[in-house]
Write a structure and sequence with these properties.
InterPro entries: UreH-like_TM_dom (IPR039447). The protein is mainly alpha-helical. The chain contains 11 helices and no strands. The protein has one domain. The longest helix is centred in the first third of the chain and has 33 residues. It starts with a helix and ends with a helix.
Length: 220
Amino acid sequence: MIEPLSLLTAFLLGLFGSSHCLVMCGGIAAAIGSNAGTQRVRVTLLFNAGRILSYSIAGLIVASAGLWLQSQHQWLMLVLRTLAALMLILMGLYIARWSLMLTRIEQLGQGIWKYLQPLTRRFMQSPRAIDRLWLGMLWGWLPCGLIYSTLSWVAANGQPLLGAAAMFAFGLGTLPALFASTLAANVLTPFLSNNRVRQVAGGLLIGFGLWTAASVWLLS
């Protein structure tokens, strides 16, 4: 069940994973800001609103799938929650730079992304500010281990509306870093790229993943 504390956890997952977000999305965010002129704030908000909307839609979809699995057999949910715990641990290892195994999982989404990426160029070149919303929505489907980890955790809860809310909270957690990279490129990069910060954030994610795994098998 996703409770307020879990929504806070989703927000912190996005916040602590912001260094990864800067690698994946920081470049396009900075480019949007540099090309927007006096509309920087507006296009930044539109881009990030589109991105977070896509995260919320994905949360709704995977949580619905989790609910369906739960209706089929209870042991399927145990498997799903164990997978969620493993993904969180891998994400923690990735953020701390102790293991890059998660990058292999990111490659699973390349099949869909190759069809969406050409559309991003169209909206990127458009002079209309509203097209930054559509660009953000497309960019929300960029293959990303951090998103996959959070979605697996959301799916394990099996509650569609609250799954969408959790991914919305996750998106808000990623917002400070990407907003700063758009309006003032690299303001947060030195902090989020600091080895100590990455290791602390990674350690917290690993701890949460281990706690999730323990709750699956000890409390179920």
